[in-house]
Specification:
The complex is a heterodimer of chains A (320) and B (370). Chain A contains 14 helices and no strands. With 320 residues, chain A is mainly alpha-helical. In chain A, α10 packs antiparallel against α13 and α12 packs antiparallel against α13. Helix content of chain B is 30%, strand content 20%. Chain B is built from 13 helices and 12 strands. In chain B, α7 links the parallel β7 and β8. In chain B, α4 runs antiparallel to α6 and α10 runs antiparallel to α11. In chain B, 38% of the residues are buried. Classes of the chains: A mainly alpha (320), B alpha+beta (370). Chains A and B meet through α7 and α12 of A and α2 and α8 of B.
Amino acid sequence: MGGHPVIRLIAQRIALGILLLFAASLLIFLGTEILPGDVASSILGQAATPQALENLRNELGLNEPAYIRYFQWLGGVLTGDLGTALSNRMDIATSLWPRLKNTLFLATCAAIVAVPLAIILGLVAARYKNGLVDRTISGLALSATSLPEFFIGYVLMYFFAVYLGWLPSVSTVHEGMAFGDRLRAIALPATALTLVVLAHMMRMTRAAILNVMQSAYIETAELKGLSGSEIIRRHALPNAIAPIVNVVVLNLAYLVVGVVVIEVIFVYPGMGQYLVDHVARRDVPVVQAVGLIFAAVYIGLNLIADVISILANPRLRHRR
Amino acid sequence: MTGTRTAVAVIFKLSSPNADLPLLLTDYHLVIQPNGGYDDPAAGIGTGPYKVEVNEPGVRHVSTKYDGYWNDDIGHVGSVEVIVMNDATARTSALQSGQVHIINRVEPRTVALLERVPGVVIESVPSKGHYVFIMHCNTAPFDNADLRMALKLAIDREQMVNQILMGHASVGNDFPISPSYALYPEGIEQRVYDPDQARHYFERSGHDGPILLRTSEVAFPGAVDAAQLYQQQAAAAGIQIQVQREPGDGYWTEVWNAQPFCASYWGGRPTQDSMYSTAYISGADWNDTRFFDEGFDKLILEARGELDEARRAELYREAALKVRDDGGLVLPMFNDFLDARREEVQGWVQDPNHETSNLRAATRVWLDQG
């Protein structure tokens, strides 16, 4: 096997990613299997007769052994068929697609604000390390992260929606909504998400830059008379890019898969709310589909992070 | 049918007499649809004043006024949007900030705070729904009438109403009929908390040791707290209740209607007959107190076909007394429906049958633009 070592490495990562995704699908299936309670009885609720339960179990194929149901499900997923929701008999792929778009829209908006803000704050903190500016930035960012998401959400809701009345507290969006209205609707959840992910990225940027600043060549740069900001811009940042990209992509993944709580409290029709609604109703096909998509996003973004750090490392980029 | 209105007669043939038929037909499960609903029951075409515009389950439902609707008494607004908000705090803030006009299921714990918000009106409506502790009359130790009576006397209903539902409920009397029902049995003595009498009955039952009570968050709002409160109240009568908290998942299959003593709830039914026939006659699938009494079954059957109102009321009074004194039902409270609306929402009807004005708020209210 010849080929460029970078291509070989990337191919390895992708293969590993696919393997992981299969493992995740198995875990998701097993997880939904061991949930307490019976699917049929949770659909029909308190008012179920034994005959109705038996009919529904037959209809849903719940009397088949678990491994057969797993392969049936996996086969469906591979051919793009995610199945039918148990609670409302709607095609899952059709209901899921707009939800996924909404979640990605919210995550993208939050990322557009959070990523540049975090990196700039990190650079500023590194430039004035241990000074008043550094301490203020770090202190504020860390306290925002230490608060639970729902608390940040409720505080924002109280001030900006209930007290000041500037922004809507309910972020319901729908097809055909004007772009401006959409942005206004998601202002509060996007802010809450930004506050949640900011500190991690900011602190990692600061640490990565400071790590590089210990190097001998930074000393050389100082000795040849470059200013502090200039050193960071020209010498430290390019060499610290790999760990920064890594943590940024990790947080992007969080913005997609970690939005469950934020979506529920702001009533945002995304994947997270879809998942919560259907977990409560034991709608297993939906839970499996959403779980699989979350896993795919997480694994995919981590793959990208890996590839970028490989490409950013000159030792791996060039043939020896 | 064409545009003209003609008199149409519908004939129902019953296999046994039922004096309640007109009331039963008001049940919200029964809808009139084109071709009897055989074409497409999910199309959302019924007999209401609005037509469906958007149907996104779990997100929102939009309907607009149907032009030329025959009845001007209902359907006063141009369009109605229903938004699904499962989080109670999200509902409350949406109402506070004026984003929505009406919310349902206000939490009893926070209702006092919401009441103080300017522009918000709380609609607390006494209902037919009730929160209960149910004993199986045919399972030891609850097959002992003295023990059942001891447990009924060992609960402080007033305290339950005030501390579990913050006063948004009315006191129950161990039969499942509230004053909101037609032919409510008047003049039945209110059973009150009496630790001394409870102790007397408990000792007479000869039972020894703790009594296991199962509860869960899903049994009714505050059911875990209520079970613990019941435990303390009964302890004053020397009755030791052991509270076991069960997971919400599977509660309705593993615990309710399966275990001999647990917390549960019932919604209202249109008539006394449908309440008793669903859960108290011997042959009922959901006879969740395992109450088997031939005399009681006869009373219900006779009342169903009785057209003389005074006689029916008398039969229902006897039935209520039987459940109250011999049955396995401990009924501390009838819960209120707790909805909230903005001040500008006018024409709200307090309806005991279901929350948000019997689910008909959208067809009944209008907005005051002043």
